[in-house]
Amino acid sequence: MKPWIAIAAAFVTAAALVSSAAGQADARQVGPLVRLFPHWQDYLDLPADERSHFTLAYVIASTRGVPAEDINIWYESGGNETGLALDSTGQVLNPPDLDTLASDPVAWINQPQGGMSVSLSFQANLEMESEIARLDTLLALEQANRAMRSVGGVASLFAPSFKTLIFVFEGPAPDAWAVTADGRRTPLIVQESQAIYRPNDRDLREVDHLVFGRPPARILIES
To answer: Does the keyword Signal apply (predicted)?
Structure first.
């Protein structure tokens, strides 16, 4: 496995993937699809029970401010053309599977303004609901940290320890609470569109579950 230390930061910005003259609208090659998904194969190679609660998320963006809905990227595999589905933030919703990566397809882009970049983050792979069990959040952190420690050798000494979950919402964050089994509530720190939770903080170790005014859109894993 390639060193996980290379993706230690919550967001790691790669070098520009595509560059062209402004205004050029013709389809053109990005290069091998795998370039858009650094370390995705390493992640998929992990046993399923070691990655059930965390994932790697990829955001494709224009360095020139082009909105995600105007970015079109696709590839051909097995005679079929597949487009990468992006949400409003540019996060890829349908990353390729191992069989697709093994076929080494070429990715194409139709982007008039050119200048693309990809960033990745560790995210919790949980059901996005208004109530989330503490045990699930602990397992997400444990699996992400185990993946980082798998680097081994000297590199593992510099791997960060993931301790924080950031719940990201569409629009302003709602009220968010950490709730114990007997119903005691502690408000989580809320900042703009995010609620922050560190399950191993001393005053949160007895928490049973989290409650939100509405479900989060995604859950970032950070140090």
So the answer is: yes
Query: What domain count does the chain have?
Result: 2
Torsion angle, alpha carbons of 209, 210, 215, 221, to 10: -100
**Residue the block writes with tokens 């191993």:** 200
Decide: 119 and 87 in contact? Cβ < 8 Å: no
Instruction: Provide the CA 100 distance to its chain's centre, in angstroms.
Output: 20
| Domain of residue 116, residue span | 4-123
Q: CB neighbours (10 Å) of residue 183?
A: 7
Indicate if 116 and 217 belong to the same structural domain. no
Domain boundary among 123, 141, 167: 123
| Amino acid identity for residue 190 in this structure | V
Distance CA 178, CA 199 (A): 9
Q: What is the pTM of this model?
A: 0.87
Strand partners, 150: none
